[in-house]
Write a structure and sequence with these properties.
Layout (H helix, E strand, L loop, with lengths): L2 H21 L9 H13 L6 H13 L11 H13 L7 E3 L4 H9 L8 H4 L8 E3 L2 E6 L2 E7 L4 H4 L7 E5 L17 E7 L7 E6 L1 E3 L1 H12 L1 E5 L2 E7 L8 H10 L9 E4 L13 H4 L5 E3 L7 E4 L6 E5 L6 H11 L4 E3 L8 E6 L5 E7 L18 E2 L12 H19 L13
Parallel strand pairs: 10-11, 11-14, 14-15, 15-18
Antiparallel strand pairs: 1-17, 2-8, 3-4, 5-6, 6-7, 9-10, 12-13, 16-17
Length: 432
């Protein structure tokens, strides 16, 4: 090759390299470390490449536009709002930021403990076990009032008689805060003032504050929810799957059905109105799998339940708390003609992962899509119930119309089974 041509090619290569470098997008930087780290993590790990440009535009607008652009000196409240806004631009589930003043922070930290294992002992000294002060109660604000949405089975909130639908007015005379109301009070009783009926006089309830470990608490809640219900000469079981993320949750249910409190139940209501999903994709096989039940029986010692399959009638309860792995669970039941009672599921089926941010808050980020049978996505769609039942929250006084409807449907199945073939419900199509 002639020297002139070689020089020309080298020059062209150099110019192309400069052009490529000039065209490469510079990373967005505000100087605010938490905000900038969120941008980095989304850019590197978010599952949908098509959404990244929209996300970057939202981030750029927070950095460069408006009267108060994000910078190194931005106050915490402004940073929080900006991060919430840019994550919302992704328009998917399994994506959000959680701080230590939120119950969700602790529950997700335990669920994602493997993903944040390098930080877990520092975040939760001395042993890396996730704990928070609380009473096992979750609330939500509706029309400017705060109501109990869940009181975990076996919790001090449940033992004290707190009910779903109670309006929370104060804790020890101060406004309610998810963590702050109980911080430093473990082992002590606090006073919750609440209103159980609209315009009624407030009630005062004493509740013991506990040090809660989320995953063991959920296992306890699953076990404590198990009940044998007797109606009109029939006996059927009930269990609430608060999450599939615990190690032994499904085993607890299997033992109750095979040899425990529900062994003689004629049917089972499985309540999938959970807090979190998680779990194995084949979790629903406990109720619909084809493999046989079997036990390992040694010469000495206890018999071990190696595999169990429930072959009697099942009715499931669903609502917007049925998400992620629980949503796949509900879909599997639907495909096997098991009636679903309640409201449409969350439409939140992606794979998420947690990251620790510079201020020790958690970023949950959707890192993988979830596709069923090659072409079906439940994200943003959800599953409609076979029997639609609303469940108003405010001042519900613990009444549960969805569970009541599930019990009626179970009775229908049991009565029909004793008198002839059961007429299956026609499942509605999945719709947006």
């Amino acid at each position: 090759m002639r020297r002139g041509m070689r020089g020309a090619l080298l020059s062209l290569s150099f110019m192309l390299s400069l052009a490529a470098a000039a065209g490469a997008a510079e990373p967005l930087r505000s100087g605010q470390p938490v905000f900038d780290r969120v941008i980095e993590l989304v850019d590197a790990n978010f599952y949908d490449a098509k959404a990244i440009e929209r996300f970057k535009q939202a981030a750029q607008s927070q950095i460069a536009d408006g009267q108060s652009p994000i910078s190194a000196t931005s106050p915490a409240g402004q940073v929080d709002a900006a991060i919430t806004a840019i994550l919302a631009s992704l328009e998917v589930s399994h994506t959000g930021r959680f701080k230590r003043d939120m119950i969700d922070y602790f529950e997700l930290a335990d669920i994602f403990r493997f993903a944040i294992r390098s930080d877990i002992r520092r975040l939760f000294p001395p042993d890396g076990e996730v704990r928070y002060p609380g009473i096992g109660m979750v609330t939500a604000v509706e029309d400017g009032h705060r109501f109990v949405t869940d009181a975990y089975d076996g919790s001090s909130a449940r033992r004290a008689g707190l009910l779903v639908g109670d309006e929370i007015l104060s804790v020890d005379g101060m406004p309610y805060h998810e963590i702050g109301s109980f911080d430093g009070k473990v082992g002590r009783s606090i006073e919750i003032r609440l209103r159980r009926a609209r315009n009624a006089e407030p009630l005062a309830v004493k509740v013991q504050v506990e040090s809660l470990r989320p995953l063991p608490m959920f296992e306890r809640a699953i076990e404590q929810s198990i009940a044998l219900v007797e109606r009109e000469g029939h006996a059927f079981g009930y269990v609430r799957m608060w999450t599939l993320s615990t190690r032994d949750g499904l085993d607890i249910v299997a033992r109750a059905l095979s040899s425990g409190a529900l062994r003689n139940a004629e049917g089972l209501i499985v309540d999938l109105r959970g807090r979190w999903g998680g779990g194995a994709a084949d979790a629903a096989e406990l109720f619909v799998g084809d493999t046989p039940s079997f036990r390992l029986v040694p010469r000495r010692g206890e018999t071990t339940l190696a595999n169990f399959r429930w072959r009697r009638p099942v009715v499931a309860v669903i609502d917007e708390g049925t998400r992620s792995g629980l949503e796949l669970f509900a879909y599997t039941l639907r495909q096997n003609a098991i009636p679903l009672v309640g409201r449409r599921t969350a439409g939140a089926l992606l794979a998420g992962r947690a990251y620790v941010l510079p201020d020790d808050s958690l970023l949950e980020l959707a890192v993988s899509d979830a596709i069923i049978n090659d072409d079906l996505r439940l994200e943003g769609i959800g599953i409609e119930p076979d029997i639609a039942v609303e469940s108003p929250l405010a001042y519900a006084a613990g009444r549960d119309p969805q569970r009541e409807a599930a019990e009626r449907e179970m009775l229908r199945l049991l009565v029909s089974a004793s008198s002839g073939p059961v007429s299956p419900l026609k499942a509605p199509a999945l719709t947006r």
